[in-house]
Amino acid sequence: MPRSDTADLSAALNPWFAHAARPLPWRAAEVSPWAVLVSEFMLQQTQVARVVPRWEAWIARWPTAAALAAEPPAEAVRAWDRLGYPRRALWLHRAAVEVVERHGGEVPSALDDLLALQGVGPYTARAVAAFAFGMRHPVVDTNTRRVIARATLGQAEPGPPSAARDIATMSALLPESDAAARVFNAAAMELGATVCTARSPRCDVCPIATACAWRGAGHPSYAGPRRAVQSRFAGSDRQVRGLVMRELRAAHRPVPRDELDAVWSDAAQLARALAGLVDDGLAVAGDDGALALPDA
DNA sequence: CAGTCGTGGAA
DNA sequence: TTTCCAAGACT
Description:
There is one protein chain. The protein is an all-alpha fold. The protein folds into two domains: 1-198, Hypothetical protein, domain 2 (Endonuclease III, domain 1); 237-292. It is built from 15 helices and two strands. The chain has helices at 10-20, 33-43, 48-61, 65-69, 73-80, 87-103, 111-115, 122-131, 142-151, 163-173, 178-194, 213-216, 237-250, 257-261, 267-280; strands spanning 284-285, 291-292. It has a two-stranded antiparallel sheet with strand order 1-2. α2 (33-43) packs antiparallel against α3 (48-61) and α5 (73-80) crosses α6 (87-103). The longest helix has 17 residues, at 87-103. The chain binds a DNA duplex through residues 39-40, 42-51, 82-88, 91, 119-124, 127, 139, 141-144, 160-161, 189, 192-193, 198-200, 228-231, 233, 236-239, 241-242, 245, 276, 280.
């Protein structure tokens, strides 16, 4: 069925992407589905500039899922270094094992198979299917959500994320052909990341400015429900976990409990952090209370 | 559904 | 300096 005029954003967005797209390494033609999967794991809640060097090193060391799966998860967590959310490193390792065990070492292209992998959710599954395999799926990340909110809804910010609703919305905007859909998915993300940014959108250089409902309405401020405010990091359990993980990565042996006690003065909070890390599988406790990265 | 989970760049 | 928020997923 035909789409409305406002839905035809691809006419302006796709040509823009052809010349404005950043030359990100995982967009190169010869990049494998595995390398794309690795990039998507790293890009979850993490800026492109911080991911690029980690991704280069990771792919050089583990060019296939089998190569990563053959090593202990501790090596993955260590190589993840300070990208943040180290559970992603653990999950990427598990996903590599699952790819080897279920799919003969080849990253699957089917959405259901991708979604079944550890650490792969609605965004990552569609991103891999679309960008690594050229399949026509709506891909919605935080950038795309903001672009849609502004261009088609006329709002400064998208409402609270809802995977089902976001996917349906993007599906209605997606061009018919596989090739155009693939470019449109990437272009919407790129526009949100480089032009239609959260803080200071550059409408003066936006390729869809004349079609943008938000701009047309005079950039009204957002009045809808705000997304929950992220709790303060300083003094949080997350900070303590981060400090502990830094010790575990640096030590290529179990770290005695008395050394861990030195990283945080609040004993109760430290104990909570350690228990959480063990529960997540990021740390393994020995009989003497020493902690180490997981070997298996 | 709301909370939780790292780290650092940019305004 | 402080605050926002970033190619999300899991519980």
